[in-house]
Amino acid sequence: MERYLTEFDTNILPEETVDTVIIGAGVAGLSTALQLSNLGIKPLIISKKEPDISNSFLAQGGIAAAIGKDDTPELHFIDTVKAGKGLCIEKNVRVLVEEGLERVVDLITIGVPFDKDKNGLPLLTKEAAHSKRRVLHVKDRTGSAIGKTLYQEINKRNIKLDTCFYLEEILVEDNVFKGIIVSNNTEKRFIRSKSLVLATGGYSPLYKRNTSAYKVGGDVLSIAFRAGAVLKDLEFVQFHPTALNLPDYPAYLISEAVRGEGAILVNDKGERFVDELKPRDEVARAIYMQYKQGRKVFLDISPLKEKGINFKERFPSIYKMLKEAGLENKNLIPVSPAAHYSIGGIEAKPNGKTNIEGIFSVGEISCTGIHGANRLASNSLLECIVFGYKTSYSVYLYNMYTKVDKRFNEKNIIKRTEILQKKDFILQQLKDIMWDSVGLIREEKPLKEALSKIQRLENQLYSYKNVRYLLDLVYLAKAVVLSALNRKESRGTHFRLDFPKENDQYKKHTKIYNNFKIKMEVN
Ligand SMILES: Cc1cc2nc3c(=O)[nH]c(=O)nc-3n(C[C@H](O)[C@H](O)[C@H](O)COP(=O)(O)OP(=O)(O)OC[C@H]3O[C@@H](n4cnc5c(N)ncnc54)[C@H](O)[C@@H]3O)c2cc1C
C-alpha cells in the first residue's frame, strides 16, 4: 500500500530511545507492562486517554475462568470452541483456559476485590453459552476493578505512562520494527525502541451504534496494516444484543450477566421470542429481526426482583446509567444490538508475536483465533491478562538479542508538518455505511455498495490535507467489507442473507495483506 502520508522528517523531531514501548493502557497494555517490569524491563506506556477511559474499564460482567469446584479448563475449552463455530484455533484456546486459572490467581493475589460468598470463595455468575457458573466479577465493575489494581502496581514500579499521545506511525524497515511517531495537539515525538507492543483495543467504533468508550477506534490496526502487519478475520464483529435503545442516548451496554441472573427479553406485545442465554449472535439477530418486523424489544428485569436480587446493589453501574436515563424504576428497559467486540485483528500468536519482527500485539487489537467466529462472553478480559503475561516473555527474549537501531532515520527521511484537519462528517458517514450495510445481517449487493461508498470517501479524503486518522479508518473499513464479501457463508457473528448456512469450504481464516489481497488459510 502507498505510504501516502508518512511525511515526517524524523531528523527534526524530538527523539528518545527506550527498550520497549507499549501503546495502550487498557487491561492488555497494563498487564503486559506489569509482567515486563517483573522481568526487569521498564516499558514506556503511551496512551491516547487516561487508563480509566478504556473499554477495559467499562467491562461489567466479569472474567471467565474454570475456578469453580465443579468446573474444569476442559469444560471451559469445550464451551469456547462450541461458541467459536469451528473456527477457534484450539491449541491457543487451551493456553487461554489453562493458564487463565493461574493469571486469575495472580489477580486475586495482587488484590482485585472479586465478589465473594459468605465462605470467602469467589462468587461466580453464569453468562450465555457457558455450561457452568464461571464468571468472576466485582459487582458490575469488573474491568475497572482489575484495571485500577493493575494501574496501582504500575505506579508502584514507577513505570512511565504518557497519556494524551496518539500513535501516528510505525516505522519498519525490511520487516523489522525501528520506531514510532506519536503526537498530541502540540508536540510530535520520534521514539526508537527495540520492540513495540500494540494494545489499543478493537474497531467497534467503526459502527454507528457501538458500546465503546471511544469515538474513534481501530486506527492503530490500520497503521500496523500500512506497516505490513497481516490482519485476520476482520469480518467477525460481535454485536451485543442488549444495549440501551433510547433516542439521542449512547448505546450503553446492559451486561449479559443481567440475563444470566434471570432477566428475560420480550417484545412490545409482551411475547418472549428467544432463549436469552443462547450465544450472543443468535440473540442479537433475533432482536434485530423483531425490529425489522416493526416490533420493539425490552429487557424485563422483574424476574431478578422476584428472586430477591437487589438490582441496585448487584449492578450499581447499570443502575446509575438507568437513573441518568430516568429508567431506574422501570422493569422494562428498551434495548437493541450494538457493535461491541472485534474478533478480528492483527494476526498474532498467544505470545503476541506478529509477522513483523519486534512488533507484538495483545488484547482486543489482536486475532489469536481463540474466539473463532464468535466470542464467548467474559473471555476477552481473560485474553488480555493471559496473553499479556506471555507477551512480556517474548518481548524479553526479543530484546535480549536486539539493539535499538540508532542509524535508522539516516535512510528514512519523511516529512510532515501540518496539523490534522477534522472532517467529522466523513467519520459519521463511514459509521453509517458500516452500520447499515456491514452490520448484523449482510448480503452481496449492500456490501458491494458499501465498498463503492467507502471508495468515494477515500477519494474525497485525498483532496484534503492531513486527514491521516480518517484515511486509516477508511482503509480499515474497506478491509472489513472485503473480508465480509469474501466469506460466502454464515458462521458465528458473520451472517449472510444470501448464504445463510455454514459452508465447510470456508472453515478457514481470512487474512488480508498490505495490498488488500485476501487469502483464506486453515490456521
Ligand atoms: C461496555 C463493555 C463491556 C464489556 N464487558 C466485558 C466483560 O464483562 N468481560 C469481558 O471479558 N470483556 C468485556 N468487554 C470487552 C473487553 O472489555 C475488551 O475486549 C478488553 O477490555 C479490551 O482491552 P484492551 O486492553 O485490549 O483494549 P482497551 O481497554 O480498549 O484499551 C485500549 C487502550 O489503547 C489506547 N489507544 C487506542 N488507540 C490509541 C492510539 N491511536 N494511540 C494511543 N493510544 C491508543 C486507549 O487509550 C486505551 O488505553 C466489554 C467491552 C465493552 C465495550
Strand content: 15-25%
CATH topology-level fold name of the largest domain: FAD/NAD(P)-binding domain
User: Please, what is the average pLDDT?
Assistant: 93
The CATH first-level class of the largest domain comes to Alpha Beta
Tertiary shape: globular
Q: What structural category do the secondary elements indicate?
A: alpha/beta
Low-confidence stretches: 1-7, 410-419
Bound molecules: flavin-adenine dinucleotide
Distance between the termini: 24 Å
- Give the radius of gyration: 22 Å
- Tally of alpha and pi helices: 16
Largest sheet: 7 strands, mixed
What share of the residues lie within helices?
Answer: 25-40%
CATH architecture of the largest domain: 3-Layer(bba) Sandwich
Tally of extended strands? 19
Please, how many domains? 2
Topology:
Layout: E1 15-23, H1 27-38, E2 44-47, H2 55-58, E3 63-64, H3 73-83, H4 90-109, E4 124-125, E5 135-136, H5 142-156, E6 161-163, E7 166-173, E8 176-183, E9 188-198, H6 219-226, E10 231-232, E11 237-244, H7 256-260, E12 264-267, H8 280-292, E13 297-300, H9 302-306, H10 311-314, H11 316-324, E14 332-342, E15 345-347, E16 359-361, E17 366-367, H12 379-400, H13 408-411, H14 424-437, H15 444-462, H16 468-486, E18 509-512, E19 518-521
Parallel strand pairs: 1-2, 1-9, 2-6, 9-16, 15-17
Antiparallel strand pairs: 3-5, 4-5, 7-8, 8-9, 10-15, 10-18, 11-14, 12-13, 13-14, 18-19
Helix pairs in contact: 1-5, 1-12, 3-4, 4-12, 6-16, 14-15, 14-16, 15-16
The structure holds flavin-adenine dinucleotide.
